[in-house]
Design a protein that fits this description.
alpha/beta; 14 helices; 346 residues; 50% helix; 6-stranded parallel sheet; binds zinc ion; binds nicotinamide-adenine-dinucleotide; two-stranded antiparallel ribbon
């Protein structure tokens, strides 16, 4: 991953790939702001940009209809097997573009150009690409390594503040899981929220390194990669119970606080206030008052049923024994989960 403020994108790309046929995939939030400069930089570096495909901004574009639209456009633009797809946008464009690159003509090159903080710290690392179905999120997908990931910090200048906080939720998550110097760097979280370039760069590099290390140990997600789901078990339940009106980062923030309540009961270590302070500095909520706990539990049960054949009503949680000491696969019964949810909705 190449990252910096004011990247010379043409030079960075030429360092990895020989110029040729390119297509750019972006969304309606990012495209008008950044695509023309990216296209110009590629053309200056000797690429021919066959098409700039813009999907509507938002999670709905990570679906079958958008996928069909994009591959159709590429086919009509004469994009060939040796072409490179540049996915310029947040996690939605990254996941959709990755799935397009993995499948169009049985696979073309992918260059990821993450523009949201979440995409820089999380979704552009680890090679997961995919789509949502009406039946659920991320139900279709694959693993694909981009040829290059390049992120210009200047792109973050236009990112709305709520989206910045969303990305910081995953930063707080990984800092807590990692412990050590990364955890200490979380003191820069408030500065990062205020768009301080040095703080952002530090925390992005920390996150990318940490996630890459975890993923390298468990690329196909059979073991320790599960720790990255910290805060996500209840977080996903909250998102679904709120009809996806609660942004992912906010749901994960509240989900981590809930997990810290379970850990306090189970393991005795009280990290609740630490979680709340860090999330507050990141501009994130620590409670989700307008949501019914039973709806969250029902959504969690559906989520689990979709993923495992284990018919019990136990959930598998990631908990922190201490900062930097995650344990995963911890069975948590429904009553215990209900109490934790009660603590964050009450
Ligand atoms: N593949 C993975 O490993 C992985 C990991 C985590 C999340 N994800 C996926 O990522 C998606 C969420 O990503 P996201 O939070 O980036 O959402 P997103 O892609 O929808 O971007 C959020 C919003 O910010 C706008 N935006 C992005 N960059 C901008 C910029 N520089 N300036 C102005 N506006 C900008 C977008 O247009 C969009 O409206 C979800 O679909 C999630 O499932 C994937
Ligand atoms: Zn997440």
């Amino acid at each position: 991953m190449v990252i910096g403020a004011g990247l010379d994108l043409g030079a960075v790309v030429s360092g990895e790939l020989e110029g040729g046929l390119a297509a750019i995939l972006t969304d309606s939030g990012v495209g008008p702001l950044h695509a023309p400069r990216v296209a110009a930089a590629l053309e200056d570096a000797g690429w021919r940009v066959a098409d700039v495909v813009e999907v509507p901004a938002g999670e709905r574009s990570k679906g079958l209809a958008a996928y069909a639209e994009v591959v159709g456009r590429l086919a009509r633009a004469g994009v060939t097997r040796d072409a490179t797809l540049f996915a310029l946008g947040g996690g939605v464009v990254g996941d959709l573009g990755g799935f397009v690159a993995a499948t169009f003509m049985r696979g073309i090159n992918l260059v990821a150009l993450p523009t949201s903080l979440l995409a820089m710290v999380d979704s552009s690392v680890g090679g997961k690409v995919g789509l949502n179905l009406p039946e659920g999120k991320n139900l279709v997908g694959n693993f694909l390594r981009p040829r290059l990931v390049a992120a210009d910090l200047d792109w973050l200048e236009t990112l709305p503040e709520r989206e910045r906080s969303n990305g910081l939720a995953e930063v707080v998550k990984m800092g807590l899981l990692s412990g050590g110097p990364y955890f200490e760097d979380l003191e820069k979280i408030e500065a990062a929220r205020d768009r301080d370039t040095e703080a952002l760069l530090t925390l992005i590099l920390d996150s990318v390194r940490f996630k890459a290390r975890v993923v390298a140990e468990d690329e196909l997600e059979r073991g320790c990669r599960a720790i990255l789901n910290y805060g996500h078990t209840i977080g996903h339940g909250l998102e679904a119970a709120a009809g996806y009106a609660l942004p992912h980062g906010e749901a994960v923030a509240v989900g981590m606080v809930a997990a810290s309540h379970i850990a306090r009961e189970r393991l005795g270590e009280d990290l609740v206030a630490l979680h709340e302070d860090l999330l507050f500095s990141a501009g994130l909520p620590t409670k989700a008052p307008a949501i019914e706990p039973e709806k969250v539990l029902a959504a969690m049960a559906r989520d689990k049923k979709r993923r495992t054949a284990d018919g019990s009503n136990e959930h598998r949680f990631v908990l922190l024994e201490d900062v930097g000491e995650p344990v995963w696969g911890v069975p948590v019964g429904e009553e215990e989960a209900r109490r934790a949810i009660g603590a964050i909705v009450g």
